[in-house]
Amino acid sequence: MSVRQALHRLTGRAQPAPPFGYRGAATMLELARSGPAPLQPNAPPPGASLHVAAVIPSFRRGSGGHAIIVRLLEGLRLRGHRASIHLEDSDGRHSEEPSAVTQRSFREFFGAEEIELDCDFRSWAGADVVLATGWQTVARALLLDGAAARAYLVQDHEPDFYAASVERLWAADTYRQGIHCIAGSPWLATVMRERYGASASHYDMGVDHAVYQPPESRGEGLAGNLGAPDTHPGGQHDDVVVFYARDLTPRRAVPLGLMALAELARRRDHIDIALFGEDRALDVPFAHRNLGIIEPRRLAALYGEATVGLVLSLTNPSLANIEMMACGLPCVELASEPMVASFGVDGPLLLAEPDPLAICDALEAMLDDAARRTKVARAGLALTAPRTWSAAAAQVEDGLHTALTVSANS
Q: Among 228, 236, 315, 368, which is most buried by a count of CB atoms within 10 Å?
């Protein structure tokens, strides 16, 4: 519940809507009036240590995008760069709380122990590269002075988050601002170049292999109290399906997944279905375990106990199925354009058409065919083995130096 909703409930009076219907519109209007702040002429030389200042949008617990930003910045820091994080509270979610509370929540939610969060830009003193991290942050990144270059960490095609709306137009326009895009997959980098004419490189999402690894590599005692049935030798159960049911994120197609699971539960009396990723209960018409938002080690343990994973991605691939694959869990996904482009039609995921019965059929095909599960699991392990956050940070580092070159030549 937002602060505005809470006040409405307490007072019986609706609180004012943000100016222009969107809190960040005032910053966008300022940019339209003044144009971007000029870039500093003396850029750091190639290979130099950089100060990277990331501008992030409002956050909530369980946000995979914010978690990825933190991991990448930590990786840059370990490569000798300085990283800072600055909050553009685009949704006004943190406007009524003290900065200390926002900073504590950020550390708790995303494990950001080494990088302090600046909540108001009052201490802004410039940076070598300003890094926008979502469409809501681009106007602010363009207005910040004292930078030699700007880059844009593009984790997804954000216009697809919206129906026909001004937000969709605004999100698309951020890719046309002349900022070098560091995209979260080769498919997404291609979209930036071909659809928007942007300069773009990419990084591959990493895996924390100390956490996400096959069950036989992890040892005992990690499962905790997940409410799972007794295990068989080797750790996995028969007919256990885990679904990334983050309903707050429409691109995860949760209603479609729940329809497929309802059909699966109708067909199979003893199926064990576990939902995770949402901190509120979903109204689900079949027996299931609702595990909420799970910390990484317990999540890895869940993957190790399961038979099949289900993640549905309408846009860029999700980190959830990357981590499932790293745990040796075969996974069913959608045969969407980005998933086919990223993994192929006969790769480390079993791709299904966006139809509940087709998804249910794919889940059953995996549940009923141990040899196929083994083949898909091995392909997933091979794909994810070289993926680390250190390697991802190195790719982002290359993108930052490309951004410096692009800015110097513009």
A: 315
Residue 392 in tokens: 């991802």
The model's pLDDT over 225-247, given as tens digits with 9 standing for 90+, comes to 344 444 433 444 569 999 999 99
Residue 340 near residue 275, CB atoms below 8 Å: no
What are the CA-CA distances from residue 30 to residues 122, 124, 143, 159, 171 (Å)?
Answer: 17, 18, 8, 22, 17
Helix (H, G, I), strand (E, B), or coil: what is residue 87?
A: strand
Q: What average pLDDT does the structure give for the chain? A: 90
Q: Convert the pLDDT of each residue in 317-358 to its tens digit.
A: 999 999 999 999 999 999 999 999 999 998 899 999 999 999
In the chain the first and final C-alpha atoms are separated, in Å, by: 45
Q: Can you give the CATH number for the domain in which 113 is found?
A: 3.40.50.11090
Instruction: Tell me the residue range of the domain where 312 lies.
Output: 215-387
With tokens 């339209």, the residue in question is 32
What gap in Å lies between CA 280 and CA 294, rounded to an integer? 12
Give the dihedral sign, CA 303/309/312/317.
Answer: positive
Residues 170 and 257 grouped into a single domain: no
Domains in the chain: how many in total? Answer: 2
For tokens 């946000």, the residue is: 63
Cβ partners under 8 Å of residue 220, min gap 6: none
Structure tokens at 80: 């000798």
User: Residue 219: what pLDDT?
Assistant: 47
Task: Tell me the three state secondary structure of residue 200.
Answer: strand
Predicted local distance difference test score (pLDDT) of residue 248 = 87
Question: Could you tell me the CA-to-CA distances from 193 to 57, 186, 188, 247, 389 in Å, in that order?
Answer: 24, 11, 9, 31, 25
